[in-house]
Amino acid sequence: MTGRIVVTINSTGRQAASFIRVASAVGWHVRAQVRSKDGLVAEELAALPNVTLFEGPLEQTGLIEDLFQGAELAFINTTHWGDEVCVGRAIADVAKRARIKHFIYSSMPDHSIYSSDWKALPLWANKFTIENYVRQIGLPATFIYCGIYNNNFTSLPYPLFRMELQPDRKSFVWKAPFSPDEPLPWLDAEHDVGPAILQIFKQGMRRWGGHRIPLAFEKLSPTEVCALFSRALALPVTYQRAPIDILVPVPPGYREHLSILEETLGQKGAPYFGPELDRPSYPAEAVDLWQGCRGIEEYAREVFPLEEAANGLRWMEDGAGAGAGGEEGKGEEGGRGEVVGEGGGVVGGGGEGRPVTPGEVDGSARMGTKGTESHGFFVGNC
Q1: Which residues are within 8 A (CB) of 97 and not within 5 positions of it... i.e. 6 or more apart?
Q2: Are 195 and 292 a contacting pair, CB within 8 Å?
Q3: How many Cα atoms occupy the beta-carbon half-sphere of 304 within 13 Å?
Q4: 17: helix, coil or strand?
Q5: Residue 299, Cβ density class (10 Å: 0-12 exposed, 13-18 middle, ≥19 buried)
Q6: Which pTM was predicted?
């Protein structure tokens, strides 16, 4: 067998799937855990060369041990499904016993350690707890901190990143609690996580051992983001600072997360990555890893309309959109359930009409109506 052997979990999530595509393309062998082999992303990954899928929940007896057999590297992004901290520690323990040479963990900050005035965002604090455990047991590790996913934006009525189509059907408004002029970190997870992770592995522990890397390729304020969207779509796009509006059912844990995010990042202005990573070297550090990144403007021009179309929206064709109270985007049954995804974002729910984001396969958009894992598509960090 040639090529390195690497483990991934939650492998139909944006971060892992992006990496698997790149690793497979360069001849690496990927041992990838998925909750289910059903769905477009799982089927795509199964068809890639050098990729072996391990089906089942991470809590399943023996699955983690089987996953790590013969592996030398691991890219791990835990989710809050089940007991995230327990699962994360179990993975770290198995990786330690398997003598993994480089363990890359997708972490996030716990803001409460920096100031008594800042609360910890619940869906991020678990990741920070796992990061500390990885350090404590002495795994050779690097920690990435992902910025806000470009792919979060949708005109469907999900909280925080809704690009709300206005009644004129020719303009959008983004409402969120962030300061309009304070920069935030941005990342196209589909396009850019995989190449960056590959480079970290290639440069190795000597370069990145113990480091935290802010994985964001642009540093833009909400006002700047809307200006780039406007230029890309050739439509007016404006930002309004406002409380988070929750118009669809969300799990209780995510409602609390959003409430604390609004207070800590919005009202109190805590840096997204925390003070330690809010440094001049970002986004240059990420760009040095991968110069072919896709920025917000390119995303808005080339990908956002495709995602909207996949969600059943047609504003880009004839002006009829969800923002004007139409029926678009509801799917065959018209249902809109809820799920929280990889980075804590609300995701589409019932039926085949759930929202979905196209991935990158041989440079072309992959469209479909089923989302990641068995529980739908997610809208990323935040």
Answers
A1: none
A2: yes
A3: 26
A4: helix
A5: buried
A6: 0.86
